Write a sequence for this structure.
């Protein structure tokens, strides 16, 4: 784990990359900020590269998925369980946290939160994304489900230069939204909230996915299939999240529904 701090005082915000070792874009963004970021206003930015061991070998994790291990276990024999406790300790009390991810899923980039707070609303509406996923009904072991005021952002496809470029832009937008940098005024926009409610299981054989992220699946249509499953949607308003044929071993993605629209903070 690598931690670098810039600035001093409050607010304290954090940008976390490298939670998964096969998603190096977040690490690249954080390292670029380490070398270039200047904090002119009062406040502290924590720049954290989380799972350096997994990044070194280019694998998602070394022993267990870090983003399924929070809040961690300091007495565990598994590296990521202990690492999770260290990450949580560093981020404890932060006013806002941005976690950087990539995936095999198709664009567009989007944000994820588990609990909506004023800080989360400011982050989400300050990011250059059209959609945010409310994942509060899904897993409870991710960073955004455990550390208050955390928003995860899916930057784009794994191993792509576009994901690095978007991640850098999104990180600066996050810092502007929380008043840590003032090179330009923050830009707040309305953001559509999609509630994730069910993981779509994958079996074996040749997988097929027929619809992209946030594309409404017509009633009666097959979202995804393989030699074990055929997932046919029988209700209106269902959209896929993290839709991918080979992004995950056990799921094709997540079913979601458009829930509401988040508006910029009232004082903007």
């Amino acid at each position: 784990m690598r931690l670098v701090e810039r600035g001093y005082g409050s607010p304290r915000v954090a940008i976390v990359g490298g939670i998964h070792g096969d998603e190096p874009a977040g690490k690249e963004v954080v390292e670029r900020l380490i070398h270039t970021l200047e904090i002119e206003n009062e406040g502290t930015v924590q720049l954290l590269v989380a799972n350096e061991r997994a990044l070194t070998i280019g694998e998602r994790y070394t022993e267990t998925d870090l983003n399924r291990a929070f809040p961690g276990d300091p007495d565990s024999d598994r590296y990521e369980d202990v690492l999770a406790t260290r990450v949580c300790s560093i981020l404890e009390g932060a006013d806002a946290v941005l976690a950087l991810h990539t995936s095999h899923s198709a664009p567009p980039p989007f944000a994820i939160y588990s609990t909506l707070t004023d800080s989360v609303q400011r982050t989400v509406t300050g990011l250059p994304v059209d959609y945010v996923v409310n994942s509060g009904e899904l897993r409870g072991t991710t960073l955004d489900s455990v550390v208050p005021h955390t928003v995860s952002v899916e930057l784009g496809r794994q191993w792509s230069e576009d994901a690095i470029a978007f991640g850098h832009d999104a990180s600066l937008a996050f810092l502007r939204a929380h008043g840590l940098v003032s090179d330009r005024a923050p830009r707040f926009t309305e953001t559509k909230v999609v509630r994730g409610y069910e993981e779509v299981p994958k079996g074996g054989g040749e997988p097929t996915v027929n619809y992209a992220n946030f594309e409404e699946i017509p009633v009666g249509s097959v979202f995804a299939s393989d030699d074990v499953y055929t997932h046919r949607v029988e209700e209106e308003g269902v959209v896929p999240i993290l839709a991918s044929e080979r992004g995950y071993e056990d799921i094709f993605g997540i079913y979601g529904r458009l829930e509401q629209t988040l508006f910029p903070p009232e004082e903007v």
Notes: DSSP finds six helices and 13 strands in the chain. The chain has a mean pLDDT of 96. The chain has two domains: 2-177, 197-256. The CA atoms of residues 33 and 47 lie 8 Å apart.
